[in-house]
Amino acid sequence: MTKRERETQRDFIDLFYHGTFRDDFLWGVSSSAYQIEGGWDADGKGPSIWDNFTHTPGNNVVNNDNGDIACDSYNKLEEDLNILRALRVKAYRFSLSWSRIFPTGRIDSVNKYGVDYYNRLIDGLVASSIIPMVTLYHWDLPQALQDIGGWDNPSLIELFDSYADFCFRTFGDRVQFWMTFNEPMYEAWLGYGEGVFPPGVKDPGYAPYRIAHTIIKAHARVYHTYDEKYRESQKGVISLSLSTHWMEPKSPNLPGDIEAADRALQFSLGWFAHPIFRNGDYPDAMKWKVGNRSELQNLATSRLPSFTEEEKRYIRNTADVFCLNTYSTKIVKHRTPQLNPPSYENDLERTEEDDNSWPSTAVNRAVPWGMRRVLNWLKEEYGDIPIYVTENGVGLKKSQIEDIDRIFFFKTYINEALKAYNLDGVNLQGYMAWSMMDNFEWLQGYSVKFGLYQVDFNDTNRPRTARTSARYYTEVINNNGIFAHLWRT
Ligand code: FCB
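A: This is the predicted complex of the input protein with beta-D-fucopyranose.
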């Protein structure tokens, strides 16, 4: 490609597009329990692995921050509902804290106060005509279940099913949109591979694959429970939220780079999506690479476990809609890494880099056109399934109210989602901005702000203040997309 061609291509992908989404498009915002609730031991709540992790010094959380109080949403339910109503969202995606409901992770420990909190939240949403979208598990495993091995113990499948069953039975008369897991890929890799997330296991070549295997089975199990016991009366949908960056090949004319970019998508999103949305089995690229490298490592079997035929039948088609979390794009190049020690990172046989011309944010580069490409890739890979973007947003270091950068982020990303919907025919049915307000951003603590609303964490009342981007997002919702201002001829 000549320089001029590259420039033309860039101009083209940056073109702005005006239009609207389908009439019933589901506009919302997202959050998660540990990141906002606080009340970490209130009213009988049991500790989760994130409570214990942040309470242990030396775990590399910025400023040693923790979620003990966070946004204090456990005590500020009305304030949260006010934000949601002011934003005029049609849906709110939040997660349930398993150890608030079952302090030990098991049904015999059920905690009435935890159940009450979620009942009040769900009732408040329904009374405000806001659709609750509920994630059952957003990384905060009850510590008592970690003590028996966490997701490395297959008995978690039954325990997760019993918790999910309780939630369907208790909240399902008002909740019709369920997600089992949030981004299990990060939990598997960061929690059990790199070990920088709890439970801090550093076993990069084996544990992530084992954990993912159990999580996929647990997801399928819960899907069948919903299907068999609740779907008929509750009429909801159930899925899980998966995430990936868009992966752009470094040299689009090198087959090795094209394959490496596709492989990177398969190892992140496809790892879970291929079994669940395709055929009950892992992507070929994973079976092939992990299998080959295991053989070269003189191992008797592949480090990637396999499903039996019966398991495959049980796992495939266990999601009604596709829920995607996406934030950024990476440039991918083929690489042949060292063979030992075994590692998921090396199994990918690629390098990932940023393009310096892309605007940086506190966490990722902002690359709006990656949104359109990843949505198109989903359609190609998994067919014409309804898609919801369940997280997309930008983390900034500055806490200012006039957050022009965030407005620019949402405007350009939503614009690319609109192109995917209107120009490319992607079946996009909803979009949830991450996040409704600043919150505990995992290893970054409170140093990174993702909120449409600012939260003052130095004030014990945790006051919330609308940023300029909150007004902008409401305008997008009211217009159901991005209008051409005809008066500006
Ligand atoms: C996602 C997580 C979410 C939030 C955003 C910024 O990976 O699901 O909890 O931290 O990133």
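The chain has a mean pLDDT of 96. The chain has one domain: 14-482.
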